Amino acid sequence: MRKALVAALMLSSGVAVADEGQWQPYQMPSIADKLSERGIQIPAKQLADLTQYPMNAVVGLGYCTASFVSPQGLVVTNHHCAYRAIQYNSKQEHNYIADGFLAKQLSDEPSAGPNERLYITEAVTDVSNKVRSGLSDDPLARYEAIQANRKALIKECESDDNYRCSVRSFHNGLEYYLIKQLIIRDVRLVYAPPKSVGAFGGDIDNYEYPRHSGDFTFLRAYVGKDGKPAAYSADNVPFKPKSYLKINADGVKAGDGVFVAGYPGSTSRYRLTSELKFASDWLYPTQAKRYQLRIDTIEAMGKNDEDTAIKYAGTLASMANRMKKLNGLLDGFKATDIVGIKQSRENDFNNWLAKDSQYQGYQQQFEQLEALLLEQQEDLQSSYYFDNAQSSTLLSTANQLYRLAKEKTKPDSEREEGYQERDMKMFMARLKRIDSSFNVAVDKTLWMQDLEAYQAQDQRVALFDQQLQSGDEKVSLRDKIEGFYSLTGLTDQAKRIAWMDADVTAFETSKDPFIRLAVALYDTNMANEKAQKILAGKLSKARPDYMQAIIAYYKANDWPVYPDANGTLRISYGMVDGYQSADALYKQPFTRLEGIVAKHTGIEPFNAPQKVLDAIEAKRYGTHVVESVYRDPASWLCRLFSCLDKPEQFGSVPVNFLSSVDTTGGNSGSPVFNGKGELVGLNFDSTYEAITKDWFFNPTITRAVHVDIRYILWMMDEVDHADNLIKELELVTN
What we know:
734 residues, globular, alpha+beta, 42% helix, 7-stranded antiparallel beta sheet, single chain
C-alpha cells in the first residue's frame, strides 16, 4: 500500500500557498494577485481573452489538449493523445507504434483518421438565465425543458457548420455556458517518436515519479484552399492559426512559476461524502475488476497476433491508464482518510448552515438531495451489468443505428443529442472507424465475459434473458453468441453505413441477429433512459440549491471557488516543485537523460531505442544542455540541499519535471507555460499520491508531471533530425 503524507510539510518553497483551482479563463482577473505571487508576468486580463495570445493557440482534441506551435498549423500534444492516429496509420509492413514516424515534407503527412478533430474555443458565453428560465416542477418536464433550451441555443450558435457549439453545466447546474468552437476536420500525423520513447516505462511507470517519458507527438491542421475547415483532401493546405506559441528553449528552473491551459475532463470536489463512499466501496472496485479482465484478455489475444495488437493498441493503452488510476484512487482512499476529511468538512458545512439565517431550513433540502443520490446509486448498481452486457461493438452499433431510425421520425429539434443532423458526419465517421480497432474474436470474447458477469448476478432483465436462450438445451450461450457473429452483416463497413438510411420497418423486419436484438431491447433501454431523465430532472433542482449554499460557505472561509472540471477550457497555475512523498523520501523536480540509461533493460517497457542510448552515451547534449535547473544559492532548494556557494550543476538534458499545477484527465497534452506565456513543456501525468485530487486537493503532495521542452527539442535535433520541423518553431531564450 502506498503511504502519502497528509500532514503538510510546509517548506520554504512556498507550497503552503495552495495552487488549487481549475479556473475558467474569465476568472483570471479575480486571482491576478495569486498569479503574480507565483511569478506569472503575463497580464491576467490577457489570459481571460480567448482571442489573444496564448489562449487562442490552445486547442482541444475532444479528449486531450494540444497547442499550435507554428504559423503552418503545426500542433503539439502527448504521444498517448495521438496514439489512435499513430495506430490508424500503422500496418504490419510499417509499424509506426514501434518505429516512430517523421514526415520530412508536407506531402508525407498522412491523415490522422476520420474521427480526429481539433477544436478551437473562440467564445464562452453565460447562458444560465436562458437555460434555467420557465422550468417546470415536474422532473421529466424540467429535464426536457433544459435540454430543449440547450438545443435551441446550440442551433442558433451553429448557423455556420464550421462551428461546433455546446452548452455545458457548471457548478452542477447552477450555471450554464455556451461554448463556441471552430472545428478543424483534416488533421494529419507529422512526427511521433517510437512507443519506447513516447511511453517509456509503460504501465509500470504510469502515475509514478521519477519519470523519463518522451510523451509528445506533432500533428498538423489542414483546411480548404479558401482557409475554411474542410474534410480531408489532398488539395487542402495547412491552417494558419491566429497565434502560435513561442517556445523557450531554456526551459524552467525549480521554483519558477508556471501555468497550464487545457480541457480537464472531470473532477468531483464538490460531491458529497456519501458519493465518495459509494465510489470507494462499490463503483471503483467493480470497474477495476472488469477493466483488469479486459486488459488481460486483449494482451493475451494480441501477444501472438501483430494485427490484433495494433488494432487494440489504443484501446489497451486507454484501459490500462484507467485501471492504474482506479487502483491509485483506491490506494489513496486507504492511505489518506479522504472520506474522513470530506465528512469533517461536510459536518462543518452543516454547522455553518445552522448558524446562517439565509440558509435556515436548508437541512431538509440537504436530506432530500441525499435521498436522491441514494436512488441514483441503487439505479446504477441495478443497471450496471445489464448495460455492460450490451458492450459488444456490433450490438452497440445496432442499438445506435436503430435509435437513429427512431429519432429520424421526429423533427430535428426534438431528436436526442447525438442523433440530430449536426451529428451525422461524426456518426458516419465512427461507423467507418470501427474497422481500425475491431477484431471479431476479441470482441466476441470480451462480450462473452460481460454476458457471464451479467448472468452471475441477481439484477436480470427477463426480456434479455429470453433473447439469449436458444430454445435448445444442447446449444450453449457460447454457441448462441457464435451464431450472432457468423450471421451478422455489421462487420462490413458498407453495410453498416447503409443502415443509416434505413427506416424503422427495415430494422423491425431484419434477420440480422444483432439488429433483431437491438430492436427487442429498445423499449427496455428507453424505459431505463426515461427513469434516468426523471432522476436527472429532480437533481437539476436539488444540486444547484446545494451548490449555492456550498459556494457561500467556501467564500465565508476564503477558499477558492471554481467549478468542477467538465471538459471545458481551464487555466491552472503553480510552480516547478518537488515533494516529500514519504518519510525521508524527497522527489526532486527534474529527471535527466542518464535516468533513461539507468532504467533501460532492453525489455519492454524499458527498451529505449539504441539511437537514444548512443546519443546519451556520447553526451551529445546539443544546445539544450542546462548548467543549472536550480535557482540562485539563496533559493529554498539550495537551503534544503546545502548548495553552499553555487547552484547544483545539472550537466544534462532535463527529461520530465514536476509542478504544483492543478490538473486531471483531459489535461494531457496541455501546454505548460513559463511566467511570460512561453511554452516550456507538456503536461502528461500526475504522481501516484496525487490521483485522489479528483476528490480532494492536497497541496503538499499534489504534483503534475510534464515533458520538458528541452527533451522534446533534443529528440528532434540530436536523435531524429527533425530539422524541417525545428525551422517552423519560434525558439526564444531567457
